[in-house]
From TrEMBL:
One of its GO terms (biological process) is DNA recombination. Belongs to the RuvC family. Its main location: cytoplasm. Mg(2+) 1 binds at residues 8, 139. It catalyses: Endonucleolytic cleavage at a junction such as a reciprocal single-stranded crossover between two homologous DNA duplexes (Holliday junction). This is Crossover junction endodeoxyribonuclease RuvC. It comes from Arsenophonus nasoniae (son-killer infecting Nasonia vitripennis). Binds 2 Mg(2+) ion per subunit. Its EC number is 3.1.21.10.
């Protein structure tokens, strides 16, 4: 049994989703968004870091899964996204969590079955897989999809003896 924290990074809204993997069964533990609600980037980054630390403290995850940065049309937006992603990863590493990264297309393929899936399709499948009665907010649904993707890949990582999982083995419940 393992608890996975999925993160959909953003400089204004960072989605998070937490699931427990028990064999092949996935259990929803929580999700939501860290909303920075300020204009200056350093304060937004601090709030993202603090929010993720709070989530890690509350849920005690075994693994941290985050979406990889994609190429954005706007370089400034891509840089801010990269910085938000960086502080999220720092929060995980500072809490000795192994970090796993997944491309957006990989997440969509894993959860929906096609790498070109729309956000609404991802939300629908997240609800279906986790047996949720209502749709989580889009950023939280994306974070849950990232956590689900990690669960799907988790079995292969264990079989292959991935060293990041071996570091966490003592924490797996």
């Amino acid at each position: 049994m393992a608890i996975i924290l999925g993160i959909d990074p953003g400089s204004r809204i960072t989605g998070y989703g937490v699931v427990r993997q028990q064999g092949r069964q996935l259990i929803y533990l929580g999700s939501g968004c860290i909303r920075t609600q300020v204009d200056d980037l350093p304060t937004r980054l601090q709030r993202i870091y603090a929010g993720i630390i709070e989530i890690i403290t509350q849920y005690q995850p075994d693994s941290f899964a985050v979406e990889q940065v994609f190429m954005a049309k706007n370089a400034d937006s891509a840089l801010k996204l990269g910085q938000a992603r960086g502080v999220a990863i720092l929060a995980a590493v500072n809490n000795q969590l192994p970090v796993f990264e997944y491309a957006a297309r990989q997440v969509k393929q894993s959860v929906v079955g096609t790498g070109a899936a729309e956000k609404k399709q991802v939300q629908h499948m997240v609800c279906s897989v986790l047996k949720l009665s209502s749709h989580p907010q889009a950023d939280a649904a994306d974070a849950l999809a990232i956590a689900i993707t990690h669960c799907h890949f988790n079995q292969n990582l264990v079989r292959m003896g991935d060293p990041r999982l071996l570091l966490a083995k003592g924490r797996l419940r």
